[in-house]
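tool_call: predict_structure(chain=1)
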Amino acid sequence: MTAELVRGQNHPLTQNRLEIRVSAGAPIVAGATLSDDQGKVHGRDWVAHPGAPALPGLEVPRQAAADHRLAVDLDAVPEAAHRVSVLLALPTGPGDPDRFGAVAAPFVAVTGLDGSEVASYTITDLDAESAVVALELYRRQGAWKVRAVGQGYAGGLGALLTDQGLPDAGALAGEIGEAVARGLARTVAPPPPRTAASGASAMADTGAGASAAGAAMPSTTPPRSHQPQSPAEPQSPPTPRPTHEPQPQAHASGQTGGTGPVNYTHPGRQAPAPPAPAPTSSPGAPGQPAVPVAGDATGWSMDERLYNQVWGMFEDLARCVAAYRSAVDFADSRMEQELDKALSDPRSRIGGQGDAAREAARTKHGRLVDQAREALDRDLAQLAAESAVVEPALPPAYAGWDNPVWHAYRSPMEIPMALRLGDLQLPESRGLGLRIPMLVRLPLERGMWIDSGRSGADALTESDELRRRAMRSAVEHAARLLAVYPAGEFAVHVIDPAGSAAGALAPLVRAGVLAGPPAAGVAGVSEVLARLIQRVDLVQMAVRGGAADALPPDLDTAEQLLIVNDFPHGFDDRAVTRLRYLADEGPAVGVHLLMVADREDAAEYGPVLDPLWRALLRLTPVPDDHLADPWVGHAWTYEPPNVPPGSRILEQVLEEVARARREQGIGPL
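tool_result:
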């Protein structure tokens, strides 16, 4: 039975291998410290944090997220450590909340590896605090207990670590913040929260963090579509999760007593269902999974249901692969322990006892791995079947360039929920060709950086070819943005100081869909940046002053995209400062960057440009495994959304965009 703790209450622990699950209403940083019997942390090597996530017996998340899983093996905790303190802190990035009083009360649960909850604690009464000691696991008379602490610190992580006796607490807190910022730059952000009026449902918070990597359950978690339903119950979608809450991983069995789909949302955090239920999967043959149906998710429209379904598939693939990898790690660890035990016993060296013990350990290891792989293959097959149904049903904003939906493309009347920036894939899913569309919400909340430098995944491609591919990728992204916005509601500017991108830009120039000719030379760079900065300043003043109707009549109120090719060529120090200003302030008022650059080319600026790179979502023109998911932090292979060779679909789409613009009185250049 679960013990629901209050501040100061303790509870005995009967298991030594545990998970600590954290849910919050906003992205938070999770960590842990080891301390002696006086509560003192002896040094940095006693602190597990995103920059150094593993300690003996501990593993914590590598990124900020609204949903975390921390792994604890109390048998492996050093003898000198008497306490394990679980720490939560708010990120320090721009736009992040600065106090826990502004977010939902964090919920912390201690569970076994099978998902059974041992104790839980909701941390209430926090206000100005930005860091908190949530729980502590402590030794008492040879046994371990858990205590609900809830001690908050308005001074943040630095004050918390100082209180635990760490000498260089402030410096370490700064390093943790840097590690979280680095993680943010490589993470696929979950969709932001939707308001009740807009009717969106359930994916996750805007935090771009990842949950704990490693230590998952040693069995595979069935995806959504694998949840069986009792024949006595009607086929109906589960209660939707609130938009500000992440979806916790289901128990290993995915069901409870065969009573149908299980809603794992905390009872106090459920939202009412939308008025019209989504279509549900058709029941399969007895003992077989349900037949996938496109739009099998909650939502107010088919586009929203498809959007939620794609994100559900993304999460399902992340979690079932995490469970498989954890099961393999468990099997490896168990075999090593059994082999060590066999080798350490002198009696096993006489006769065939040692050989028999080693063979038995390897046999058991193979059986465990085979079981995990069988479960993974079942889940991957179901997800592949769902993908085969969902992909053809996607609207243009979510569809790949090879989708037939583009051949019937017409300029839309409304802005879609999201945009496809490419595909994501894990090594375990390559055999089935299973790819998950990478969807980001519109309007864009951050700019993009297409890295034209060499990557580890494609180190043999010539640098000039990488630059050409990067610029083609930028043009394809810009064309898609122009296509999914209503005519006249999105404008594209280009800075090409040396004119080296003329070939890649030709489709946009020929169609006449650019806001002006590509800017060249130092003067052209300065003029475009000055014009966009003036727009940002005017809109900011109007919004802050509540005088949006006082904007100049000739001001273009459409969303703006600035493509910058071959940065920093053609940029002086003043232009670099202006570009950084646009990256920081532009997205809030509809001005976005699309950088095509090799970071090595800008190395002369040193750390001055680090905030610029971190503010942008890094993409690559070739497949590369540089992105992480916000649940378990897998390294996903990103594949850019390339137009099929020989296809004219890009030109056809741009011609339709140009036609719709002419009808709106927006002529060509």
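agent: The first strand starts at residue 3 and ends at 5. Proceeding to next step.
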